[in-house]
Amino acid sequence: MLADKFFLLGVRIANIGMPGEQDFYEKTKTQVLNIVVACGIPINFYFGIINLVQQKTALSVINFLLFIGAFLILIINSYRKFLLGRLVLTILASILFTTSAIFFRNGNEYYLLVNLIIIIIYFSEKTILIAISLINCLLFIGVKIFLSTPIVYDTVPFGRVIFNIVWALVTMIFALFFFKREQLAYQKQVEDKNRELQQLNDTKEKLFSIIAHDLRSPIGQLRNSLDLVNKEYISPEKFIEISTKLSTEVDQLQGTLDNLLKWSISQLKGIQVNPERTGLETVLEKKFILFKQKMEQKNISLQVEGVNQSILVDPDHLRLVLRNLISNAIKYSYRNSTIIIRSYTKGQKVFIEVVDKGAGMGEKISSGIFDPENFMSNTGTENEKGTGLGLKLCKEFIEKNNGQIWVESKENEGTTFYISLPEAK
Known about the structure:
Layout: H1 2-14, H2 24-53, H3 57-78, H4 82-104, H5 110-122, H6 126-147, H7 158-230, H8 236-269, E1 276-279, H9 280-297, E2 301-305, E3 310-313, H10 315-331, E4 338-346, E5 349-356, H11 363-366, H12 389-400, E6 404-410, E7 414-422
Parallel strand pairs: 2-4
Antiparallel strand pairs: 1-3, 4-5, 5-7, 6-7
Helix pairs in contact: 2-3, 2-7, 3-4, 4-5, 4-6, 5-6, 5-7, 7-8, 9-10, 10-12
């Protein structure tokens, strides 16, 4: 329990001054700096008291200056003046560590190495980086040269020297390990994003190859038929006979293009949701008109059960979802069959079912029809084509509206799509 409290305290200290939009590297640098500075606060306070008791007044003053300086840096960082905080730390540490190492021979020159690492990690401006790094190197070398002389102002116990050296090394290792860990985490994020982008590119390539193939056929048939009419190879009466099939092909083409457009917008701008109280019956009435011709061609009847609920949903999204589900039900239904659309309320959810007694799907297909990376679509009972994109859109749009969608299907027995959405009170 105590360890958890210390950990939470460490996290809070590390995140002092952290804005959400800060660059990852800058955020990591500031976190490491906050931790290193905070670790020095209790140490300097403790030795400030010890040195004061032992009448080492000058050394005690240095300790308390470091103690106050650490608090000052955390305060500066809390105001997000990160560059100023780093400069204060570097200058203060360089002066005080050099002074204490020369006059008291307490091993504080090794903190100059810690300071050097912080400088290299934290400063990106070349002029500042080179200048301060050079100064710290010269200070470290100067202290080592001075320590070889017999001039001694005062000394501290040897144990204190060992402690300072060990603590400097621990601080150095901690800073490097923390920075390394954050770097690896960032590298993993980059690799994950690259994989996502690669998967998205693969999905797009597969999708566009499918769509290009499916678009070519109806457009080609329509063009050839019009050419035959224009060149009077077939009579207008004969063209009327084949127009029904061409109309079906064009309807499928329109649905495919509409799905592609919606999908493209969702990929470029994200799915924008504007939920409002929406009457299910009103939405369905418009869809029945849209699919009337298709149902008449296959002599499919429609049975509606209890659709008087109001749903909290983006109406455009619900229209797209129902259009795709009803279109699929017609596509995979046999002639002279019935499609059932029913809804009911349970708890605070409205459940919608779209049921057909058509061709159905095997478990392998039904388990992958919502997978955004796979595009699987069987031809309809009268060779109607599809891309499989519509059901991916249905899943995305339903989930964005705080709903769920799933399917149950058996080959040659039919398919039922289920939707649950929040009820509008």
